[in-house]
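Bug #77: duplicate submission created two jobs. Keeping one. Sequence:
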Amino acid sequence: MEEISYGKLLKELRRQKGVAQRDLAASVGVDFSYISKIENDRLQPPSADTTIKICEALGVPNEVLLSLSGKVSSEMKDTMTSSKSAIKFLHAVKDMQLTDAEWDKLTSKLKKLR
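Kept job's structure:
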């Protein structure tokens, strides 16, 4: 099965929501031609912060597009790198090569600890 690109998924989501490229661009604060180039895979995915704005404008969870961009928001980066224990944890789970289902299970268990 072929994996969908960031641009193709963005186009699909935007069309499903009935949002024009110009309207999305205005909501995000970019030129509509930038959205067009991303959707047609002529540009790499935008920064994580721009991706989050796109997701908010389309009313979809941030992780939908962030997972395809391979990027994290400035806020997330600050959170992940501000603690030795957080970095140690991230290295440990990286080596475990968790599946999405395992990540979800881990998240659920962590929430119960709080």
